[in-house]
Amino acid sequence: MEPRACMGLRVSSVSEWSSIASLRDSADILCRINVSALIMPQEKQTGSHFSNLHLPRISRDGAAKGIILGGLSLLLAAMFPFGEPLELEYKVGGIWAQKDLIALFPFPILRDEREYGRNVQEAKALVYPVFERDSTIEPFQLRKMGELFDTIEVVLRLRRAPASPADSLHLIYLLGGLAIPFENHDWEAIAGLKMENRLTSMRQHLASVGRTCWNTGVLDRPKFSLSREEIAIRSGKNERIVATGGLLDLQGAIDLLESDLGRVYAKQDDVVGVAYRIGVVLITPNIRYYPAASEAAMSAAVEAVPRTAGYVQENERIISKHERITEEVRLKLESYRHARADRGGEGNPRAQYVGTLLHVLVVVMLFGIYLSLFRKRIYARNGKLVLIGLLVFLQGFLAYVTREMNVEAPVEYLIVVPVASMLLTIIFDSRVGFYGTVIIAFVVAGIRGNDYSIAFASVVAGALSVYTVRDIRNRTQIFRSMTFIFLGYGVTVVALALERFEPLAVLVTQLGFVFVNALISPVLTYGLLIFFERVFKVTTDLTLIELSHFNHPLLRQLAEKAPGTYHHSMMIASLAEGAAAAIGANEILARVGASFHDIGKIVKPTYFVENQRGTRSRHDKLAPRMSSLIIQAHVKEGVTLAREHRLPEEVVDFIPMHHGTTRIEFFYNKALRLAGHSEDETKIEEINDQDYRYAGPKPQTKETGILMLADAIEASVRTLEDPSPPKLAATIDEVIKRRFEEGELDECPLTLKDLTNIREAFLRVLAGVYHARVKYPDVEKPASRKRPEPVAEDEGTVDGGEATDLS
pLDDT of 636-685, one tens digit each? Predict the structure, then answer.
C-alpha cells in the first residue's frame, strides 16, 4: 500500500511511525510538508479578484442561534427592574459604607408602600356605599297595579257574558297581555271576591302593603352582600346615613307581604295565592346602588390618605458615611431613588430598556463565546443551547419572583442557583458548570437590583456544588451536595453579616432560608435531570454508567447467543477505556460504546469465527460477495437493535463508526483468487472494491476513533503466536499506521500526540493480558491442551480488515 499523505506528512515505515511523536516538533517534519498543497491552483489565481466576492449569508443554524440568544436576552431584560437607578444598595440595620449622600434636589419622603397600602384599605373600608332613593317607583307601580285590576274586572265580565266572536278575541287579547298567567281556579277565586265586593278591598290592601315597603325602603341587593351595616342614601341633593337593619331587601319585602296576606285571608289559600302573585309583581326595590357616587367617594377617601411623610430640601444630607440605616433613612433613600428615576428616566424610558438589554446581551454572549471557542460540540447543538438557555431563564425567573414578593424575609436565598450548577456539570462538564454559575449569578444579581450579596453567595455555593458532582458515579451522589451547598451559602452569609453588623436574629433567619435551599436543591436537581434527559435526549455520564453495568438486555443476549463476541467486546471495552483516559477523552462513553459495538452479531452469531466452536465455517459454501454482505449486515442490524432498545445516539454512533469505510480484506482477496483461477478474465474486472467495504461513516469523535483502533488491534493480537511486548508494540504500530494511511482517522479530532498516548495505553493493557506465565518443569502438560495451530494470515481477515478469523 502506498503511504498516504495527511496534510503533506508521509509515514513510510513502522519504525518511522514510532518516532513521529519525537519528530513532530523538529525541522524534519517541516521539510515533509507538501507546500504545493497549500498553494492556490494557477487557474484560480488568474481569475478576477472580485469574482469570488459574496455578501455574507446567515445560515439557518446561525439564525437559530441568534433567535436563542435574542429570545433569552429579551426575556431576562424584561424581568430587570425599570424606572429607577440601581447603584444604591441598602438594608435596614446595615451600615452605609459609601460617602455622605447629599440631596441634589428637593423631594418628598414617600411613605412605606406596605403601610400606605394598609391605610388605603382602611380608608376604603370606612367609605359608605352610596344608594339612591327612586321616588318614581311608588306611583308607577301603583298605577300599574290599578291597570291590572281594571283588566281583571273586564276579563271577569267577558267570561260571564255570552261569548261573541268579538268578545272572544278581546278576551284572548287581554289574557295574553296580563303580567300574571292565572289558572282557572285562580279566576274562580277572583270571581268569588268580585261577587262579594271584596276585590276592591284586595286592591286597596295590596296598595297599602306596597306603600309600607317603599316608605321603609327596599334595597336592590341582599343585605348580607353589603360590606357595612350602614349605607348612604341620596335623595336629590340630600344624603343621610341609614342602618341597613331598618331597611328591607326584596326577600324581606316579600316575607312581609306573605305574612300580612296570611293574617288577612286566613284559611283562604286560593285567595292568598292570587294576592301573593299580584303583590310579588307589584313590590320592586326603590333604593338602588349608585356606583358612580360610590367610586367617587372611594377615590376621595384614597386621595385623603397622605402619601408622603416629610420633605428633604436641596443639599440636605440624607445619610452620612458609616451611619446605621434606620427605617426612616430607608424611606428617604427609597424616595430619592424614585425621585431620580422620575427626573432622569421619565424623558426617555426606552433608553433604559436598551441599556438593560445590552447589559443582559453582554452577559449571555460571554457564555456563548466560551461555548463556541472551547465547547464546540455543545455550541453546534441548538437543542443543548436551548437547554442551557432554559436553565438560565428559570434562575432569572426565580430572582424576579423573589423581588416581586416584597416581603421582609430573605427570600433571595431561595433562588436555587446550585440546581443549575449541578445540572450543567452533570449534563456537560465541570467547566461549563462553573462558567454557567458565574453567568447566572450576574443575571440573578441584576434582576434583584444589583444585589452583590446574592451574587457572591450564588457563586460560592454554585462552585462548591459543581465540585461535588464533577466525578459523579450514581444518582444518589447528588444528595452529598447538601452539606456543601449549605456550607457555601452559610459562610458567605456569616461573612457579610459580620461585615455589615447584622443583628443575630437576621443572621439566623438567613441561615434558615439557606438550609431550605440546601435541602431542596439536590431534590430539584434529581427530578429535573430525569426530565432533561427525556425531553432533550441528552446522554449524561450517569446514563452511561447505568449502561456499563453489563446487565442490559442486549448485553445479556450477546453473552447467551454470541459468547465469543461478548468476551471480545469486553476486551475492547478495557482497551478503549484505558486509551480514552490516557488522552483525556470520555472514558465512560468509550467503554460503553465498545461494549455495544458488535451487538448486531446477535442476529447471525455463527457466521463470525469467534462464536464457532469445533465446526467448519459457514462461509465455506458461500460466494465471497454473499459472505461480505452478511458481515456488513451486522452493522445495520446492530444500529436497529440499539435504537429499538433506546440506546443513546452517542452510543449508537459507535456501531457503524468502529468499522468506518474499511474493506473486508479476507473476502475481497478470496474473490480475487477465485476470479484469477477462472478462465474468464472479465470476472476480475467485475469485482468492485466498494462491494467489500463498510458503509461508514468514518469515526467522528475521539472515542469512536479509539474504538476503531482497539477493535483492529485486538483482532490482530489474537493471531500472534508469541504475544511478547516487542511483538505487541510492533502490531499496534502497524495497525495505527494502516488506519492512518487509509484515511479512516481523517474526520476525528485525534492528534499525533493522542495517537502516541493511545499506543502506549494499548500496550500497557495488552501486556498485562498476555503477560508471561511461569513454567513448572515437573508438571507434564496434557496432550489435550496442545496449543492450536495459528490460522493462516490469508484466512483471518474478515471483520474490519484485520486478522479476526471471519469475525
Answer: 999 999 999 989 889 999 999 999 999 988 888 888 888 776 555 555 55
**What is the model's pTM?**
0.58
User: Distance (Å, rounded) from C-alpha 706 to C-alpha 722?
Assistant: 25
Three cell numbers, residue 355: 441599556
DSSP code per residue over 644-664: HTT--HHHHTHHHHTTTT-B-
784 is written with which cell numbers? 489435550
User: Which amino acid belongs to residue 582?
Assistant: A
Which ranges of 500-562 does DSSP label H, i.e. alpha helix?
A: 504-535, 541-547, 553-561
Answer yes or no: are the C-beta atoms of 82 and 278 closer than 8 Å.
no
Task: Name residues whose C-beta falls within 8 Å of residue 785's C-beta, 6 or more positions apart in sequence.
Answer: none
Confirm if 502 and 94 have CB atoms less than 8 A apart.
yes
Give kind and range of the element (H or E) at residue 633. Answer: helix 624-644
Predicted local confidence at residue 582, as pLDDT: 94
Q: What pLDDT is attached to residue 747?
A: 93
Q: Which residues of the chain have pLDDT under 70?
A: 1-58, 83-90, 161-164, 167, 195-196, 344-349, 614-615, 677-685, 771-807
All domains of the chain in start order, with CATH? 1-44 (no CATH), 101-125+309-344 (no CATH), 126-297 (no CATH), 349-538 (1.10.1760.20), 544-773+786-801 (1.10.3210)
3-state secondary structure of 387: helix
Preceding omega of 697 cis (within 30 degrees of 0):
yes
CA angle 60/66/68 to nearest 5° reads: 105
Q: By the 8 A CB rule, do 630 and 607 touch?
A: yes
pLDDT of 794 reads 35
Give the total residue count for the chain. 807
Q: Are 155 and 184 in contact (CB under 8 A)?
A: no
Q: What burial letters (b/e) apply to 37-55, b meaning 16+ CB within 10 Å?
A: eeeeeeeeeeeeeeeeeee
Beta strand pairing call for 230-235 and 130-133: parallel
Instruction: Determine the 3-state secondary structure of 329 from DSSP.
Output: helix
Would you call 504 exposed, middle or buried from its count of C-beta atoms within 10 A (0-12, 13-18, 19+)?
exposed
Q: Are 247 and 219 in contact (CB under 8 A)?
A: yes
3-state secondary structure of 109: strand
Compute the Cα dihedral for 144, 147, 151, 153 and give only its sign: positive
- Expressed in angstroms, the distance from the first to the final Cα of the chain is 23
